[in-house]
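TA notes. Do not distribute before section.
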Amino acid sequence: MNEVESRRSEHGWRRVLFEVIFEADTPAGKWFDVALIICILLSVVAVMLDSVEAIEIGYGRLLYAIEWTFTILFTIEYILRLICVARPMRYAVSFFGVVDLLAILPTYMSIFFLHSRYLAVVRILRVLRIFRVFKLGHHTKEAAVLKKALYASRHKILVFLLVVMTLVVVIGSLIYMIEGREHGFTSIPRSVYWAIVTLTTVGYGDISPDTPVGQFLAAIVMILGYSIIAVPTGIVTAEFSQTYKAKPTSQVCPNCCAEGHDSEARYCKFCGAELNP
């Protein structure tokens, strides 16, 4: 009987811990997310200030101590997240699980590689959890719809990128033949670089065609660039309109840690586990 009660007690505190850390529906969970976001922003500011030489000279030790304090707090939080979920490895390899791990690794790596601690700014990605805090708005819904639209259009975008890659290689080879080394197009790879810069309408201007034929080709590439930019936008927009569905909530599955469930859902649409046991 004592063993059964012990298991129930363990399940109870893990469930409470899960609700506080993962759920934004409860007051405790919301306050936890708000406090976490504030800590993330402060830690990122500390890392950025530490890269300023004048500030680093005067306050380097203080900023270093602050960075380690936040890192220890984030490490404890990461461990607690793994403890309270049903499948720790499932969460560890998820998007937020990887981001949480990357948020603490740079500071520990700085013990061996000094400047690696500046990579800690990657923890700004953890602020994406703010969408769960403000779930009453349309942010969560739009993020989920955008994710579905990008995933659904991946094959079309891949084909588009392959066409663009083929096009810039052909254009780069043509401009290399037309202009030659004497005009700065010293190789086909460098000419392909020019084609990419011109086609994307970036126009660095470090190399440019001098001959009339080369300038005519450049003008065609520039005009072509404007039409090409609109293609991926149209692809994603079409998928966006098709994947627009009912508004999902911030409810997190306690089994697989997946989000994006419908407001009336009782079971996870990814693993089938009960959402509110």
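Switch to the second chain here.
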Amino acid sequence: MSWKSYIKGFGAYMKLERSMSSNSIEAYIRDVKKYASWINQYQEGIMPENADRKMISGFIQDIHKVGLSDRSQARILSGVKAFYKYLLLEDVIDDDPTDLIEGPKLSQKIPDILSYSEIIELLDTIDLSEAHGHRNRALLETLYACGLRVSELITLKLSHFYVQEGFVQVIGKNNKERIVPIGQEAIQQNLYYINNYRNKLNIKSGHEDTLYLNRRGQGLSRVMVFYIIKDAAKKAGIKKKVSPHTFRHSFATHLVEGGADLRAVQDMLGHESILTTEIYTHLDTKFLRDTIMNYHPRS
């Protein structure tokens, strides 16, 4: 087997068994190729099953020396670790040489959030007399009402918008589905957009079930959503760095500040770990300790 064959198999494993997105797979493969190139420069002819912990540590030290950010280093190491886990599953190796290798400690960067009044100001800048005004208002209302990722927003399906029940069915990371409640204001804005704008478009084949469409009858791009938000923030005079993720973070923060249960917020955001939700909602360890002390039967 060659490095090329192993990496090809690694890509198939991530796609078929781990159901990772194409972007994530490409990033992992790119990082493993960097590692393979470094190994071949270190000593020609070494195969992945022959590389030891010392070599891998040397690779990590070298990418640190070239000035890559801590986050980039951590991402590359994550790709290499995933590669060796694949080799372990395939019985190519008996022990994982990356087990005890640690990456740089990453500080948690908390993005800006918008206050409720800033959310309203931003929404009010949308000109409903413009051709795409009602669509833009509907999708921004949905971002804030449901705390969606931008990738989840642009792939929302018309058939997954349940008006009577008051929820949307969301396809999240790794194609995992979840149900998220949606408020009345967002429902009304979406219904107006669907019945008075979307139904008049010449919808392209393959986009019949896509909720948010551009003027050509095709799904929106991530870039277009970023543009819509940045334009609205500028008109509202908001100086903060605002992105689709700002709406998601504001959604979670406002819920927790209002007394929402942390586990419910975790479910709505689609987080696998509640620790991720803790970071998103600015919670400190005291909150978690108080929760355990108040509700755990052995406390």
